[in-house]
Amino acid sequence: MFIEQGIRKENKFWKYLLGSTVIIAMSFIGQLPLVITVVAKTVLTGKSYPMTNEGVMHFLDSNLTLFLLLLSFVFAFAGIYFVVKYFHKQTMLSVTTSRNKIDWNRILFSFGLWSLISVASVLIYTFINPELYLLDFKPIPFTILFVIAVVLIPIQTSTEEYVFRGYLMQGFGNLAQNKWFPLLMTSLIFGGMHLFNPEVAKIGNVIFVYYIGTGLFLGIITLMDEGMELALGFHAANNLIGALLITSDWSAFQTHSVFKDISEPHAGFDIIMPVVLIYPVLLLIFSRKYQWENWKEKLTGTIDSND
């Protein structure tokens, strides 16, 4: 059982708090190249240092900014490896899946399914509302973006999944000895992590329905499938397709994507539609394909210790 693999007497919850601090510290170290690059440009050009996140996002070329932003996740992933192996004496496999090895077919199926839905959604939106989207394809910048995104975005999304659906899921399981509390807490923290995204300021707090709902969806498929493979594939597809296909001046990722959203952001049904409509359909597809059973026990049941 996936969540039970981290349930050990020596895995006290304080270790997860300390481990999370190490991971955050490694992420901050990984952000230093971005800070240094921005400072260097201010020295060379005489421009003022940007005082807001939005200013930083627009200060450098978007491809360079994206590369430097994603670089911090490489450091954070190294932090995850360190704390899992040396703090908790576990293998990375044990915080990935309950299977004997990672099921790459599950990752690819989830990635392919959500990629197909995402691409279709963008094309439909741009076809129905052409006045709201600008075709902004530039071959050379897009090629550079493609290389950066394909290499580093899966690291970014995998890092987040290992933190929330792997490390912290098992950590809160150790604390609560049940499954509903880890599912709830990791979803809330995952949503809260997006608090400073520029989308929140533009659209409003209603967007947390999407963020927390997405965290809940990823947690459910992890617990039901006894591993993170489906969540890993979904999250990678979501961010990768988003970065390559569409951007806007107010989004978290500024990229040389194919399309640019020039509409005025607002809170509409499209914000909550994934949570109330699309995610339930995906749950149905996954449950049928992988023959999920015992939903109540897997999502809310108590945890049996390995000791």
Automatic annotation (TrEMBL):
One of its GO terms (molecular function) is endopeptidase activity. It holds the Pfam family Rce1-like. Residues 143-241 form the CAAX prenyl protease 2/Lysostaphin resistance protein A-like domain. The chain crosses the membrane at residues 21-44, 64-87, 107-128, 140-159, 180-197, 203-223, 230-247, 267-286. InterPro entries: Rce1/LyrA-like_dom. One of its GO terms (biological process) is CAAX-box protein maturation. Keywords: Membrane, Transmembrane, Transmembrane helix. This is Abortive infection protein. The lineage of its organism: Bacteria, Pseudomonadati, Bacteroidota, Flavobacteriia, Flavobacteriales.
